[in-house]
């Protein structure tokens, strides 16, 4: 259980706030640009429905490998959603359950760009300026599946996060 408490926040922050730093590809159209149609992830509210790690890890110390870390997240975070605004702004919306811990704008907001050639979303988080890169594995009007890599205890972990469009 202690391992879960120590590692899970780091993994979550790594995925959501600073997975892989990279430079913006100058050849990619800017969000809101009329030259290319916006990707299907632009506009809808996206709520996380799965959060998997590869290799699987025993986070709760019960001797079994955990396959989906979503169950380890507090309910107040599981019902939150992301919105990729057409103008390139990333908006985090709270669900019906709110967390008691205040979050700063540096964590909650940010901007995004999309590289059509590499199918990557690059997110810059608010005033903190940390950068996260998501590889788009699957995208429909109802589902967004991304891959990202985090490093925990010196080991790279590949994450797969599935988001569902919600009203």
Q: Main attributes?
A:
mainly beta, disordered N terminus, eight-stranded antiparallel barrel, 167 residues, Lipocalin
Protein model, in words:
By secondary structure, the chain is mainly beta. It has one domain: Lipocalin, CATH 2.40.128.280. The protein contains three helices and eight strands; from the N terminus they run H-E-H-E-E-H-E-E-E-E-E. It has helices at 2-17, 75-78, 105-108, and strands spanning 45-54, 81-84, 89-93, 110-115, 120-125, 130-139, 143-152, 155-166. It has an eight-stranded antiparallel barrel with strand order 1-2-3-4-5-6-7-8. The longest helix has 16 residues, at 2-17. The chain is globular. The termini are far apart. Residues 1-11 and 13-29 have low confidence and may be disordered. This is Lipocalin-like domain-containing protein. Keywords: Signal. Residues 1-23 form the signal peptide.
Q: Summary?
A:
The chain has 167 residues and is mostly beta strands. It is built from 3 helices and 8 strands.
The main pleated sheet reads as: 8 strands, antiparallel, barrel
N-to-C SSE series?
Answer: HEHEEHEEEEE
* Envelope shape: globular
| Number of domains as seen in the coordinates | 1
Keywords: Signal
Protein name: Lipocalin-like domain-containing protein
Signal peptide: 1-23
Organism: Spirosoma sordidisoli
List the helices and strands and how they pair.
Elements: H1 2-17, E1 45-54, H2 75-78, E2 81-84, E3 89-93, H3 105-108, E4 110-115, E5 120-125, E6 130-139, E7 143-152, E8 155-166
Antiparallel strand pairs: 1-2, 1-8, 2-3, 3-4, 4-5, 5-6, 6-7, 7-8
Protein name: Lipocalin-like domain-containing protein
Signal peptide: 1-23
Keywords: Signal
């Amino acid at each position: 259980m202690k391992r879960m408490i120590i590692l899970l926040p780091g993994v979550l922050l790594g995925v959501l706030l600073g997975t892989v730093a990279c430079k913006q590809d100058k050849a990619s159209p800017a969000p809101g640009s009329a030259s290319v149609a916006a990707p299907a992830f632009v506009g809808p509210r996206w709520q996380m429905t799965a959060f998997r790690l590869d290799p699987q890890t025993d986070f709760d110390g019960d001797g079994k490998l955990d396959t989906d870390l979503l169950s380890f997240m507090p309910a107040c975070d599981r019902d939150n959603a992301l919105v990729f605004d057409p103008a390139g702004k990333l908006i985090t919306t709270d669900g019906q359950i709110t967390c008691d811990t205040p979050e700063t704008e540096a964590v909650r907001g940010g901007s995004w760009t999309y590289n059509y050639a590499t199918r990557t979303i690059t997110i810059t988080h608010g005033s903190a300026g940390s950068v996260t890169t998501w590889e788009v594995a699957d995208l429909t009007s109802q589902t967004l599946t991304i891959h990202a890599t985090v490093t925990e205890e010196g080991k790279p972990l590949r994450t797969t996060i599935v988001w569902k469009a919600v009203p």
